[in-house]
Amino acid sequence: MKTYLLTAAAVIFLSVIVSLIIPQGKLNKTIVFVMRMACILVLIQPITGIFKIKASSEGDVLYDTEYVATVYSKNQSGSLEKLLYDEFAEECECKVNVVYVGGNFKVDSVSVQTVSENNQIIEDIYEYLEELGYINITVYAKSS
Predict the structure, then answer these.
(1) Alpha carbon distance 107, 129 (integer Å)
(2) pLDDT tens, position by position, 3-43
(3) 113, 142 in Cβ contact below 8 A?
């Protein structure tokens, strides 16, 4: 605020000094107009700041990253369940853990619980998820 007031006072003072120094003539009206515009722009600067939406620092975000990660995890889990059912005809419960790191959302881990205890299907699902680029994969059979 102190900087704003000093800037406003300096621009107004400069405008007054320039308008007193310049001689009457063709250029007088143009210079006075430019100086008045500069004063108006400096004075309305706080009003224009209201309409700008920005984080207070680079690390801040304007949304709840934990909530977005939770919703993203649920959507990814549901999509993965459908994908595995289409690929292997296997009912699975999937849990995709999404985290917010370094300004981006990324998949941290994947857990898949299958209905059948067939080791070959479990291995195939694991390999399939590796091919898709998932990391920290856990595939296991549902215990009775």
Answers:
(1) 12
(2) 888 888 898 888 888 888 888 888 888 888 888 898 888 88
(3) yes
Long-range CB pairs of 12-21, under 8 A, 24+ apart, other chains included = 12/39, 12/42, 15/39
Query: What is the spatial distance between Cα 25 and Cα 23, in angstroms, rounded to a whole number?
Result: 6
What is each CA distance from 135 to 19, 72, 107, 113, in whole angstroms? 69, 17, 8, 16
pTM, two decimal places: 0.56
Side-chain-side CA neighbours of 51 within 13 Å: the count stands at 4
The string over 64-87, giving b where at least 16 C-beta atoms fall within 10 Å of a residue's C-beta and e elsewhere, is eeeeebeebbeebbeebbeebeee
Alpha-carbon distances, residue 33 vs 19, 29, 30, 38 (angstroms): 10, 6, 5, 9
Q: Which residue has the tokens 């993203």?
A: 72
